[in-house]
Amino acid sequence: MSELSIIIPTLNALRYLPACLASIQKSDLPAPSPEVIVIDNGSCDGTRDFLASHSPIPVTWRSNATNTGFSAACNQGAALASGRTLLFLNPDVELDSDCLRLCLEYIRERESVGVLGCRLRFPDGRYQKSAGLMRSFANEFREKRTQRRLRAGDWTRDPLAVCAEPQRVDWLSAAVMFIRADLFRDLGGFDTGFFAYFEDIDLCVRAAKRGRLVVYYPSAGAIHVLGASAGNRARANQIYRASQLRFYEKHHGGLNLLALRVYLGLLRVGDLLRHCSGWLPKSRPLAAPESKEANR
Question: For 93-136, what is each residue's pLDDT tens digit?
């Protein structure tokens, strides 16, 4: 059995994938090398030819005829994996040379830790939010405000941006997510009811309910392009809202779910009025993420 299996779901991300694989190659992780599995989710940019003939490292890869969704692609890769620890990795991520070693050492030495994430940053070095508190209606408004301040350069509004020690959190981004393979399989993998968005938060919540810690580890780091591919924003918003509603139905209910339904209903009314009159500003989903079309 391998120590680490890296699973990379990709969709039309050939411009990023070579650098992602090269960063794995440059890792200072001691031998043996990690198992690398790439699931191509119906790309039409030459990804299959690259994987077949030009990958800088050995990879196991599968190509789907259509986009099956982020969750399904991750589960497909995990089914092929033999590692004790799984790393779900976006193709537009470049790992720091010590990231794999530091994270594997941390999770190996702490049996209580089930899911682990590292500090992410944009290519220009700015902090990128990749962990946080349980998603609730109130927390999503707070996070949206925090994201605006982070974009303005105010890092002090997010404690995770300045912390130096590992922190217990409620969720981690699947852009770089380590999880014990046995835990992942016990949980049934990602919920494929989430085509994209909220699948990582849902997995972390379910892991915590099993008594396993979800930890943000800022000593390890990686660059994440995030939003480099504009994609179809309207479709991404639609998928985001559907996943957001599914998450609330699974993990909240009551006033939180009612508040979200009212909020989304008001957004739809606003969109309709804007379409009819042309003067209302276009709505955006609560705590909307950057585009993730590069890997979803």
Answer: 999 999 999 999 999 999 999 999 999 999 999 999 999 887 76
Degrees, nearest 5: CA angle 209-138-267: 115
CATH number for 142: 3.90.550.10
Distance of CA 12 to the CA centre of its chain: 17
Q: Give dist(CA 136, CA 211) in Å, integer.
A: 21
Domain annotation covers residue 267? no
Q: d(Cα 296, Cα 285) in Å, to the nearest integer?
A: 18
Residues spanned by the domain of 164 = 4-224
Residues 6-44 as b/e (b if ≥16 CB within 10 A, e otherwise) read bbbbbbbbbebbeebbebbeebebeeebbbbbbbbbbbe
Residue 69 corresponds to which tokens in the numbers above? 């969704």
pLDDT digits (tens, 9 = 90+) for 28-84: 999 889 999 999 999 999 999 999 999 999 999 999 999 999 999 999 999 999 999
Question: Do residues 30 and 101 touch, judged by C-beta distance below 8 A?
Answer: yes
- Quick check: is 84 in a domain? yes
When divided into structural domains, the chain yields a total of 1
pTM: 0.87
- Domain assignment present for residue 264? The answer is no
